[in-house]
């Protein structure tokens, strides 16, 4: 039953490739992966070019022109992977469609059916790409196309002089082209789900401490490090939260934590990094102009303390900031910088608590 549930979850997974791209970015692998995909596209572009040079390739002018167009177009895709940003999801779909259609035309245009059947192994490259960068439904569409194309090319061999050998080769190719990719994608989905879960607080859906450390390096880049940009750390601690648990129960306490997370989300930018570090302590990090830091912290504090029909709470908020440019130029590791910034924000938050709670204290690194 659990296995069936996993399969249903995998099939219905909307697939967020952002996690994988963030993983590549955090480890400086984005450029390497793009080069590898471009090389694979270059291999696919070599196929029609070689078929043109082969005596078994099409002899008619229309077929040869089509192969030439496919070769040029596929090398164009390779160039696209090497230049510009990571392709959008729509562009990625177009890349898959182009590649699948190009492979089918190449293997079908080969006058030697056995050589064409061997060329169907090219579907493995596209299957691998879809496995990692698209969801199961896209993979299913690719597999149906690869299956139909491979079988169509094999039919002349099956009805030929040695059908047993043709079927044997077809089965091997179908395993490689059709059976292996979904097994790989399901396994990758399980690993990805576990990895994501290890970075997320299960109660609120916000990042946990480990998740915070993984995301912060992605928050600051050269484009965001303009003169006025500040990397701001906001720590939030709910006032008298222990009394909520003691008097109303832990279930109510959990409801308050979830409500707090939702209220924080409602007043910060979508690009902000939000985390629950444990207990009733939350963190918000963002890159903002210096003149909006106080307003942002007060907006969060007021949202949390807004009236509630059940178990209202207030929050003490501490703020620390560092120029985004200084963060990038620092010789300290991101972990060391994050811990130092978090320590400053915590000290500010305790000042807010000592000042009577339900207030904001700010440390901008200037003795404030």
From TrEMBL:
<dbReference type="InterPro" id="IPR000160">
    <property type="entry name" value="GGDEF_dom"/>
</dbReference>
<dbReference type="InterPro" id="IPR050469">
    <property type="entry name" value="Diguanylate_Cyclase"/>
</dbReference>
<dbReference type="GO" id="GO:0005886">
    <property type="term" value="C:plasma membrane"/>
</dbReference>
<keyword id="KW-0812">Transmembrane</keyword>
<dbReference type="InterPro" id="IPR043128">
    <property type="entry name" value="Rev_trsase/Diguanyl_cyclase"/>
</dbReference>
<feature type="transmembrane region" description="Helical">
    <location>
        <begin position="31"/>
        <end position="53"/>
    </location>
</feature>
<protein>
    <submittedName>
        <fullName>GGDEF domain-containing protein</fullName>
    </submittedName>
</protein>
<keyword id="KW-0472">Membrane</keyword>
<dbReference type="GO" id="GO:0052621">
    <property type="term" value="F:diguanylate cyclase activity"/>
</dbReference>
<feature type="transmembrane region" description="Helical">
    <location>
        <begin position="139"/>
        <end position="159"/>
    </location>
</feature>
<feature type="transmembrane region" description="Helical">
    <location>
        <begin position="89"/>
        <end position="107"/>
    </location>
</feature>
<feature type="transmembrane region" description="Helical">
    <location>
        <begin position="171"/>
        <end position="191"/>
    </location>
</feature>
<dbReference type="Pfam" id="PF00990">
    <property type="entry name" value="GGDEF"/>
</dbReference>
<dbReference type="GO" id="GO:1902201">
    <property type="term" value="P:negative regulation of bacterial-type flagellum-dependent cell motility"/>
</dbReference>
<dbReference type="InterPro" id="IPR029787">
    <property type="entry name" value="Nucleotide_cyclase"/>
</dbReference>
<keyword id="KW-1133">Transmembrane helix</keyword>
<dbReference type="GO" id="GO:0043709">
    <property type="term" value="P:cell adhesion involved in single-species biofilm formation"/>
</dbReference>
<feature type="transmembrane region" description="Helical">
    <location>
        <begin position="114"/>
        <end position="133"/>
    </location>
</feature>
<feature type="transmembrane region" description="Helical">
    <location>
        <begin position="65"/>
        <end position="83"/>
    </location>
</feature>
<feature type="domain" description="GGDEF">
    <location>
        <begin position="229"/>
        <end position="365"/>
    </location>
</feature>
């Amino acid at each position: 039953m659990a296995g069936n549930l996993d399969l249903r979850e995998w099939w219905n997974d909307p697939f967020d490739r952002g996690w994988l791209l963030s993983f590549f970015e955090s480890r400086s692998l984005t450029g390497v992966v793009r080069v590898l995909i471009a090389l694979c596209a270059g291999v696919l572009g070599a196929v029609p070019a070689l078929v043109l040079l082969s005596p078994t390739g099409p002899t008619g002018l229309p077929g040869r022109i089509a192969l030439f167009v496919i070769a040029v177009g596929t090398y164009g895709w390779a160039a696209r992977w090497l230049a510009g940003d990571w392709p959008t999801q729509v562009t990625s779909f177009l890349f898959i469609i182009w590649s699948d259609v190009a492979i089918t035309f190449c293997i079908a245009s080969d006058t030697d059916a056995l050589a064409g059947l061997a060329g169907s192994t090219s579907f493995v490259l596209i299957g691998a790409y879809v496995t990692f960068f698209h969801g199961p439904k896209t993979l299913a569409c690719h597999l149906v196309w690869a299956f139909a194309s491979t079988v169509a090319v094999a039919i002349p061999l099956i009805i030929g002089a040695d059908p047993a050998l043709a079927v044997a080769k077809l089965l091997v190719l179908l395993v490689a082209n059709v059976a292996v990719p979904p097994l790989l994608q399901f396994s990758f989905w399980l690993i990805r789900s576990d990895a994501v879960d290890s970075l997320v607080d299960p109660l609120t859906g916000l990042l946990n401490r480990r998740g915070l450390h993984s995301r912060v390096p992605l928050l600051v880049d050269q484009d965001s490090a303009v003169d006025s940009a500040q990397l701001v750390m906001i720590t939030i601690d709910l006032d008298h939260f222990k009394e909520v648990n003691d008097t109303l129960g832990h279930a109510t306490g959990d409801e308050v934590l979830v409500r707090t997370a939702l209220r924080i989300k409602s007043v910060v930018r979508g690009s902000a990094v939000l985390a629950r570090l444990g207990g009733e302590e939350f963190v918000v990090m963002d890159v903002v102009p210096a003149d909006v830091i106080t307003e942002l912290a007060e907006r969060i504090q007021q949202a949390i303390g807004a009236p509630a029909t059940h178990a209202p709470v207030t929050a003490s908020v501490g703020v620390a900031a560092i120029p985004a440019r200084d963060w990038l130029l620092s010789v300290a590791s991101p972990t060391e910088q994050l811990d130092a910034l978090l320590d400053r924000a915590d000290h500010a938050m305790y000042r807010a608590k000592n000042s009577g709670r339900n207030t904001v204290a700010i440390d901008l690194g200037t003795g404030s």
